[in-house]
């Protein structure tokens, strides 16, 4: 979610790199409008817009990248909530502040009595507009001039319970970004497994390359011969889900968060072993998986402070003891 919000934020910035020009070429001038046949990227950006607008506010400049109705650009909340009756009569709900200042409100001819009573207040806001030549600036909705960033968005969303605890644990980890992305995809069942690829007509079969079973996340990381042998060697399991693996009690004298980090590294190596078997026809044994997991933990242990590093290395010693 935070990466998506950061992408949405880039689209609202005044600079116009080539990728932004490509993305916006089929979108109309109103903020948030998509083409008549929206692409997948357009659809997911539109899904992220409500959250982005809910946690940000705008200091108006030229008004070109600020939605008149949906963004917080004046005291109070968004006008679509403050003047909901009038907004329901808008025929151009995604118009920018600059567009409304230039062309006025686009409303249905007949207004309800409540909408008509709100029209005067909204017109007064428009008359009071003082737009300049500088771009609009986006800040977090809470905090003294705190500029938008992925980090700030993560803190706001996690503190309000929008992100699940698993995502919070993953992104607060000291592990490399590639492991965090892998872990988040795994938690959401979004890895490119054969069952997912087959459903999208991107693979000839949904069966595992190593055994005669459907290649799902549960199969790859719990019941496939490669994974099952690894867990037996460590004296862990059996498991019936990835969540069961990550919630298992520590098998080494370490704290649960660092034990979970060690398990994520092990799951990463199981995934790499799966890829090696699928694409190269080379099957790694349990010893190879545990040895490479131990190497990664040693390599990345410098990311932790001294007490945590010692506990993380205890997890490494536990994995090595099974060789």
What does this structure look like?
It contains 17 helices and 2 strands. The two termini are 39 Å apart. The model is unreliable at 22-28 (pLDDT under 50). It is elongated. The protein has helices at 2-11, 18-24, 40-54, 79-82, 84-87, 97-103, 113-127, 150-159, 165-171, 177-187, 194-199, 217-223, 225-234, 242-246, 256-280, 286-300, 306-321, and strands at 56-59, 137-140. The chain is mainly α and 323 residues long. The longest helix has 25 residues, at 256-280. Strands 1-2 form a two-stranded antiparallel sheet. It folds into 2 domains: 2-156, no CATH class; 164-321, no CATH class.
Computed CA radius of gyration, to the nearest angstrom: 26 Å
What spatial order of strands do you see in the largest sheet? 1-2
* Poorly predicted residue ranges: 22-28
Strand content: under 5%
The number of helices is 17
String of helices and strands? HHHEHHHHEHHHHHHHHHH
Oligomer: single chain
Tally of separate domains:
2
Query: Mean pLDDT, nearest integer?
Result: 84
Q: Which structural class fits the helix and strand makeup?
A: mainly alpha
Largest sheet: 2 strands, antiparallel
């Amino acid at each position: 979610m935070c990466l998506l919000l950061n992408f949405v934020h880039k689209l609202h910035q005044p600079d116009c790199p080539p990728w932004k020009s490509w993305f916006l070429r089929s979108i109309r001038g109103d903020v948030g409008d998509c083409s008549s046949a929206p692409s997948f990227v357009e659809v997911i950006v539109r899904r992220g817009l409500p959250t982005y607008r809910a946690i940000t506010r705008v200091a108006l400049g030229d008004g070109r990248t600020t939605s008149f109705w949906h963004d917080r650009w004046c005291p109070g909340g968004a006008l679509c909530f403050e003047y909901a009756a009038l907004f329901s009569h808008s025929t151009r709900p995604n118009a920018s502040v600059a567009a409304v200042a230039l062309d006025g409100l686009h409303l249905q001819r007949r207004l309800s009595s409540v909408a008509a009573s709100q029209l005067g207040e909204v017109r007064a806001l428009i008359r009071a507009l003082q737009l300049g030549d500088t771009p609009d600036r986006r800040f977090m909705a809470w905090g003294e001039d705190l500029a938008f960033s992925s980090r700030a968005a993560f803190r706001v969303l996690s503190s309000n319970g929008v992100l699940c605890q698993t995502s919070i644990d993953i992104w607060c980890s000291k592990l490399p970004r590639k492991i965090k992305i892998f872990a988040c995809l795994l938690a959401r069942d979004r890895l490119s497994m054969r069952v997912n690829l087959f459903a999208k007509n991107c693979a000839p079969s949904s069966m595992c390359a190593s055994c005669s079973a459907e290649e799902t996340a549960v199969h790859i990381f719990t019941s496939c011969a490669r994974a099952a042998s690894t867990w037996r060697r460590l004296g862990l399991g059996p498991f019936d889900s990835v969540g069961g693996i990550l919630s298992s009690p520590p098998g080494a004298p370490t704290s649960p968060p660092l034990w979970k980090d060690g398990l994520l590294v092990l799951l990463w190596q199981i995934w790499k072993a799966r890829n090696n078997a699928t694409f190269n026809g080379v099957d790694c044994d349990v010893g190879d998986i545990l040895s490479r997991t131990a190497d990664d933990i040693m390599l990345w242990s410098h990311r932790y402070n001294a007490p945590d590093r010692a506990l993380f290395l205890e997890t490494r010693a536990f994995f090595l003891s099974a060789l």
